[in-house]
Amino acid sequence: MTLLPESIELEVVTPERQLVHETVDEVQLPGLRGYLGILPGHAPLISELGVGVLSYRKGNMTRYLSIVHGYAEVLPDRVIVLAAIAERAEEIDVERATRARERAEKRLAGKGADVDWDRATFALQRALVRLQAAARAGTSIPAEEHHAAP
Amino acid sequence: MPTLLDFRRRVRSVRNTQQITRAMKFVAAAKLRRAQERVFAARPYARQILRVMRSAMARVPQPLHPLMVRRDEERLLVLVLSGDKGLCGAFNANIIRRAAEFLHAHREQQVFVIPIGKKVRDALRKRRVSFLEEYINVSQRVEFAQAQEIARQVMDRYCRAEVDAVYVLYNEFKSVLAQRLVVEKLLPIEPERLAEAAEVSDRAETHPPVPAPRTPLAGAVPVDYLYEQPPEEILARVLERHVETQVFRVLLESAAAEHAARMTAMDSATNNAAELIESLTLHMNKVRQATITKEIIEVVSGAAAPTTT
User: Fold this and answer.
1) Average pLDDT of span A133-149
2) CATH number of the domain that residue B249 is part of
């Protein structure tokens, strides 16, 4: 009988770079139909990812990434995420994302014939997920300190 | 007989040129390093996509996707990659020559061309080749979004059966000193070639500049995965991603190769200038010596003249 692995090696790669290569305790993936929580020893799985926030926990530290479409390959001791676009929450330019959101909303509200609907919704989704990731990363730091206190 | 002043002027002019070529060499070297890093950074993604694709393919009993359909190659589409700027040795000339050869070899078929890069576009336009589409100024800053756009365009045409096969013609970055001209088939995707590609990428991975320590992958042995989505769906999208990554890789390779070619070209230009300066200086000194000798003779003979009379 083989023991279950105690941690997960998480790899997040985009076509431009390797974003994360760390040993972590838990991963939350933004699956196409809802979030998937992955703990060590998960059964092998392949899933397509939607637009969402990927988070991973290492000890009592949680980090967030924004993910825009991709795949995740899950093995008992390893999670490989292939994302078209991925950013660390810390890298996200909140101001820029806010502007992008406003722009996309305006375009969608305009409902002119020349509005590229798909592109605008995609831009909106992208902006929203970036803001979400940044917001969660921002709030998680005090929350962790709170947990650690007692 | 050129005078001393003429030589001085020429030496100065050559020296100026040498300064420019030397500066260009350093710029190219810096850009090459960055381009090279990006080539390596793109590898893990390409490798993983390949793995997911193969695993999904193994699960689908009859993988038949529009991108894998094979047709008789009556109409070809070829992407030709060159640089946007000159002064990089035979880099652009080679690719243009190869493109002309390709067109000549396939003159029986209908060949559509999409040039990527100003140099090849201009050269082929002169030969009255018409393009489906053209992309310029791509190599300066290769973005994945750009690669995606090109890949989509090509895949659309393939799926609508406008073309029967898609090739790419580019300079592969082999080493700083050597580029290799490559013709690769982009579409249809041939499963048997994927296995080969996986092996090649694994081998390439064994000696990257920054070796990443990796535990043996479970993917080496076939694993029976749970599929969140039907494997057919995943496969369909992974195939598209694969083509996009391939285009991206080719763009990066070509950009790196261009910088490498420019660096070597500018290096030899700098050396040639140094040689030229040396030989000009030698001539100049000879001329100067000759003038001095002549003057001495004049003085001596002038001094000797009155005594004979």
Assistant:
1) 55
2) 3.40.1380.10
Residue B239 is part of which domain span? 29-262
The total of other beta-carbon atoms located within 10 Å of residue B34's CB is: 12
Nearest by Cα to B22 from B277, B272, B278: B272
A93-145: which CATH architecture? Up-down Bundle (1.20)
Cβ distance A46 to B144 less than 8 Å, yes or no, reads no
User: What's the pLDDT score for residue B259?
Assistant: 93
- Whether B304 is covered by a domain: the verdict is no
Residue numbers in A near B237 (CB within 8 A): 48
Is residue A29 within 8 A of residue A35, CB to CB? The reply is yes
Residue B249: C-alpha distances to residues A60, B118, B234, B264 (Å)? 38, 19, 22, 22
Rg, Å, chain B Cα set: 29
How confident is the model at residue B195, as a pLDDT? 65
Are B140 and B237 members of one domain? yes
Are both B109 and B62 inside the same structural domain?
Answer: yes
Tell me the per-residue pLDDT of B140-156, one tens digit each, with 9 for 90 and over.
888 888 898 999 999 99
- By the 8 A CB rule, do A53 and A45 touch? no
Closest residue of A to B46, CA-based? A15
Check CB contact under 8 Å for A31 and B218: no
Q: Which residues of chain B have pLDDT under 70?
A: 1, 63, 195-223, 307-309
Q: Are residues B280 and B220 in the same domain?
A: no
Q: In chain A, list all ranges with CATH 2.60.15.10.
A: 8-89
Give the closest-approach CA distance of B95 to chain A in angstroms.
26
Contact (Cβ atoms closer than 8 angstroms) between residue B267 and residue B22: no
Active site residue B88: yes
pTM for the structure as a whole:
0.81
Amino acid at B240: E
A6-45 residues labelled b (16+ CB within 10 A) or e (exposed) = eebbbbbbbbbebbbeeebbbbbbbbbeeebebebebebb
Instruction: Give the pair of three-digit tokens for residue B277.
Output: 């300066």
For B127, the 3-state DSSP assignment is coil
Q: What class, spelled out in words, does domain A8-89 have in CATH? A: mainly beta
- Angle, alpha carbons B24-B26-B32 (nearest 5°): 100
- Number of domains present in the structure of chain B: 2
Which region among A8-17, A61-70, B7-16, B51-60 has the lowest average model confidence (pLDDT)? B51-60
What the block records as the tokens of B94 is 């080679």
Residues of A in contact with B210 (CB under 8 A): none
